[in-house]
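The passage that follows is intended for readers who have already worked through the single-chain material. We present the inputs for a multi-component assembly, then the predicted structure in tokenized form, and finally a short commentary. You are encouraged to pause after the input and sketch how you expect the pieces to fit together before reading on.
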Amino acid sequence: MKISVNWLQDFVKLPPPIENIAEQLTMAGLEVKKVEPWQNKKDILFEIEVTSNRPDWLSHLGVAREISAVLNLSMQLPEVDKALNRPMPSGWKINLKEVEGCAYYSGVLIEGITLQPTPEFIRERLEACGVRPIHLIVDITNYVLLETGQPLHAFDADLVGGQEIQIRKAKPGEKFTAIDGKVLELRPADLVIADNERAIALAGVMGGKDTEVNSKTRNIFLESAFFHPRWIRQTSRRHTLSSESSYRFERRVDPEGVGLGRDRALWLIQKYAKPRFISAVIRAGRKPTEVKNTIHLSETLIEKVLGTPIKSSQISLILTKLGLTVSKDAEKSWTVRIPSFRPDLTRPIDLVEEIARIYGYDKIPENLPERAPLFKPRSALTKLEEKTRHFFAGAGLSETVTFSLISERGLSRDAELKNAVAIINPQNKELCWMRPVLLPSLLDVIQHNLHAGIRDCFVFEMAHTYAQGSREKSPAEDRVLAFALFGNWKPKTWLDVDRKAAFYDLKGIAEAFLQACGIRKFEFVSRPQSFLQPGISEELKVGQDILGVLGEAHSRFLSLWDLDGSVYFAQISLSKILPHVRWVPHFSELWRYPGIERDLALTVPEMVKTGDIQAEILKFGNGLIHEVRLFDFFRGGRIPKGYKNLGFRITYLSRERTLVSVEIQKLHSEIAEAMARKFQATFQ
Amino acid sequence: MSESVHEVRHEAEFRLAGVHTAQELEAFHVHFLGKRGKLASLMDQLKTLPAEAKKDFGREVNELKQFLEAVCQSKKEAVGPSLVKTENSFDHSLPGIAPPVGTIHPITSTIAEIASIFERLGFEIVEGPEIETEFHNFTALNIPLDHPSRDSFDTFYTASGHLLRSQTSTVQIRVMQNRKPPLRIIAPGRVYRPDTVDASHSFMFHQIEGLMVDDRTTFSDLKGVLNLFLRELFGPQVKTRFRPHFFPFTEPSVEVDIRWGKGWLEILGAGCVDPSVFEAVGYDVKRVQGFAFGLGVERMAMLRHGIQDIRLFYENDLRFLRQF
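Having made your guess, compare it with the prediction:
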């Protein structure tokens, strides 16, 4: 909100420099975001930020009151109409039908105004605060709103049907044309001001087009009321219609301000619009007194909360300056009466804050608490995440942070999205799914980098996946690790040739990662996944637990994301890894005897799985085989079609003795024979 | 040691490309055709094979030998006469070959840095769900429905009536519901608000919530802990200021600014836990007190690294990621 310094000067004499005042207000919680001159230094404007607990700051008078408290300055109130014994407006009456929505309503009939130009100071102050002057009467109501915080409304009395002002719920479907020309369809939850046939104002939000004051207006019905914050807020949100009035009513106006605002407006109208007649005030309802207006405060609470004592004299000075009435009950105990403009003060703790902020947060000493240690260990998941992050960065992948909300692109409502959580009010209409899988997000990353000219992309991320809970239960979240490879896994250098990433790089990373977690026994089992390419889709299992999946991204993604090469993708559940992690590696004795390496080159039919041969060799080793490593894989050339050539390097090793060459040679031959039998292997 | 014939052939073909000088040719010759060279070891291996395998293997080894001799001969002509080894022949300026090196995202490294500071102060890292209930995100935090204090907390809702948490304060509620004081926790994580994305806003970002509760923790302690934290994160010279503010879940509430260039920069929100929050989790208001704070991770990371645009964090451009 913009505050005019000239206007403030009507109520408090501000000692220069103005910047200091802004600073002091900020440090008391009324944040002045900007101090700027207006129109060649005719005025200075404060741009203030008003927190939702302080509607009383939404006016010049309220800000002046705060300044007088913070700077200990005396304060002058604006001039108001004080005339008594005016005649009642003949025939006019108020019919208050909805007392929750409107606790208190008042109005005055003003007749025979002359439409004068709006006085210069009103025009300038309105413009400085960003309000366009339109019409003397409207300008005066706006002026009073910015000055006192009380919204007013002026109806052209001759355009009101009949003389009864009703405050009622809207009828279902009732049509209302607002001042801005918008036609609204109302509901009974909307509060309206109505004449004998139609709604003439959407209470507290906006006046109606039909009864708007205009250049021909001579007679006015001036409204000043207290509308319920919730009613106004709901109507304003329902119709996405917000105004300076609704903004204040929904934050709660000062019930005492209803009269003040009205009387201030009457004073200005009397002076500048020269009316022939002003009626007595007609009223309905009662001013709300829902604010608990007395609080008992003990000094010990202040010290207990703030950690520092504050002197009694200071406490009473601060509270008094803020407009509260203070009386001492006993030693260190106070009774504090709260004025109507401070509905936010209801509990002793609220007063502690008031005392602290005026005393100055900066004056409260800082202290490092000395406490007994709590000795809470890091959670296993946090530990695993850190381990994972460092492993993957070390393995050459870059960590990403992508949005949890994704679009439907590439996914199917019958498959991946079947159990997914949908957002009903997305910011971006497309991004309405809480992702069940990280693949689309990592594809976005690959695509972005490709467009930036980076062809090789190896990335990982740890984040949640989300799924609907079963019936009454909350949605389920799982912390997963996802990683993807695209492009050249090995770059070309002057020493080495380049090589494209392959599924086996993905698999190798997964294996090395599990080993780093101390997991030795795991297996990869072929199993189709809707988002992976058929045939290149594996489940990662430890015992019966499925930890995750890995494979090649389904080809449909490549065209959708416009990628010209394969993407290898893995997603592993960290929470499912967790029970298998061996945090403290167990040492096994180093071998003392040398190993002997022998190679075995086999030609086998394509359908034979390398892993089966490897497992079979190991089984055959009588415990003397330390490792079976595939070092060569060959197709074509002298190898007949439908066959492949596999080169294994077998390391024979005993932990008890030195192996004899003859013994190994025998075993090696036996293995070769067994492979020939079992897998139709031949030796080229 | 033995190797298969065609692996040796592969290797030879590969190495041949790197032979440009007489010395390199000499090394090549020794490696493959020398007394203890690869060919010699294949010959040894031949001896151990059963008779039926010998024939094919022998033929292959022979072919390999012919190949190696032929390439050595042709290279010899190409490289010219042997030179005496000089210091010039070693080119130290050839580029080094870097191992593959990955990177850690500045958001997670900032979280780790902040978490480690609080861990040293005895705080424990905890987490909570991102899809939350109305109670944890609003009601328990003293943010009533239909109240203007909600305006700064626009929220994503799911079809099941849940919502995406708009702040990590939800975690303090969950922890307090399940545990008794004393508590010292920090809760990092993702939060969501339907904001239009621009250079300083995103509909998803990260927060760290902190909470310290026991029977004596005061505003003065809040100042001590947060000042220590900020000095640790931004350096001992950092200037801070504590400015009154309003949050529904703390009383007194404070915004903390740090001196940045010529002005002050809002860096985190904090305050003493409001008694109504303690009531909501079933604590005895008369016996517990403490403070809570919340900070934006992106903000901290932007300040630490001099990043101007929040969108860079979520684009994951490798030219960006590789700088961290």
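Commentary: Chain B touches chain A through 93 residues (CB under 8 Å). The first strand of chain B starts at residue 124 and ends at 125. How closely did your sketch match?
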